[in-house]
């Protein structure tokens, strides 16, 4: 989750500097790292070797089971789409879209952090 927090900080800085593509990349990686942390907390841990594998595992293990809201799965999928656009197509993400993605990344990371804290409290009880 520390990597997710750092990626969010970077996304904010890049967006403030006008680098919408970079901000989208970092916002996606904040979500990716949070999803990876959530999967690492599973028993047994869910290894993922690719971005698509991690997103699929997150959906199957945490979204479809109802442990996290469906909206988080949609957010993660959308963030990957925007990141691919920003990183590989040569197109530029509009500032409003980048701000929206950053807001969603913040909500996603917060929700995963809360989920992990709740899971730890249950284990410790």
Mean pLDDT: 94
Helix content: over 70%
Listing every helix as H and every strand as E from the N terminus to the C terminus, the arrangement reads HHHHH
Total DSSP E strands = 0
User: Which residues sit in consecutive blocks of at least 5 with pLDDT less than 50?
Assistant: none
- End-to-end separation in angstroms reads 22 Å
Tally of individual helices:
5
Largest sheet: none
Shape: globular
Q: What's the arrangement of secondary structure elements?
A:
Blueprint: H1 2-16, H2 20-40, H3 51-63, H4 70-88, H5 95-124
Helix pairs in contact: 1-2, 1-5, 2-3, 2-4, 2-5, 3-4, 4-5
Account of the protein in words:
The chain has five helices and no strands. By secondary structure, it is an all-alpha fold. α1 runs antiparallel to α5 (95-124), α2 (20-40) crosses α3 (51-63) and α2 (20-40) packs parallel to α5. The chain is globular.
């Amino acid at each position: 989750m520390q990597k997710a927090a750092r990626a969010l900080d970077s996304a904010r800085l890049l967006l403030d500097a006008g680098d919408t593509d970079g901000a989208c990349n970092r916002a996606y990686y904040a979500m990716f790292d949070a999803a990876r942390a959530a999967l690492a907390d599973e028993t047994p841990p869910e290894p993922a070797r690719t971005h698509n594998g991690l997103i699929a595992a997150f959906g199957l293990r945490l979204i479809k089971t109802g442990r996290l809201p469906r909206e988080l799965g949609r957010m993660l999928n959308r963030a990957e789409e925007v990141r691919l656009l920003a990183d590989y197509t040569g197109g530029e993400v509009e500032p409003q879209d980048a701000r929206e993605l950053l807001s969603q990344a913040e909500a996603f990371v917060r929700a995963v952090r809360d989920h992990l804290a709740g899971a730890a409290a249950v284990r410790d009880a």
